[in-house]
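Quick one, tokens below:
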């Protein structure tokens, strides 16, 4: 697959900036994940991706926020098997309780981008599967389909 750098002009997927959330939401998302149990950084990132259907925050936004939460006494960390594992504290649980049910929700634009990304991943897998061991004629047909789809997308963008 193509990873988290996407296909867009900015290397962040679909030629647009990554989805944004309100200032301060990240700390609550991290605390929500840690409420489920101790985790190391990439388990936290993967948990957020699973919980928000494809939204995957960058390590550059997660790790500084975890450090800030640790400095504030909302999480603790310890080295376990060479990995820094974070655990929510009572103060972190209290902060979540005080916040109430005001949880982060994906915007309609983000939801639509997630759905397109899923479709694009399915297309990529079909292309890869189709190219494996195929003859020159089949490979050429697949290439033509992909190029036609790309041109059609650019045509739509030119109209908007």
């Amino acid at each position: 697959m193509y990873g988290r750098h996407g296909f867009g002009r900015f290397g962040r997927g679909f030629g647009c900036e990554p989805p944004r959330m309100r200032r301060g939401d990240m700390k609550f998302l991290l605390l929500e994940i840690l409420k489920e149990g101790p985790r190391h950084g990439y388990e936290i990132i993967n948990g957020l991706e699973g919980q928000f259907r494809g939204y995957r925050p960058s390590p550059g936004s997660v790790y500084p926020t975890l450090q800030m939460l640790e400095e504030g006494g909302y999480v603790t960390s310890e080295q376990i098997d060479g990995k820094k594992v974070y655990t929510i504290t009572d103060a972190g649980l209290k902060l979540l309780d005080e916040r109430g049910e005001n949880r982060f929700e994906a915007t309609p634009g983000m939801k639509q981008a997630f759905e397109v990304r899923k479709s694009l991943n399915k297309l990529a897998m079909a292309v890869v599967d189709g190219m494996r061991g195929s003859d020159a004629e089949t490979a050429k047909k697949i290439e033509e389909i992909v190029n036609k789809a790309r041109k059609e997308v650019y045509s739509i963008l030119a109209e908007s």
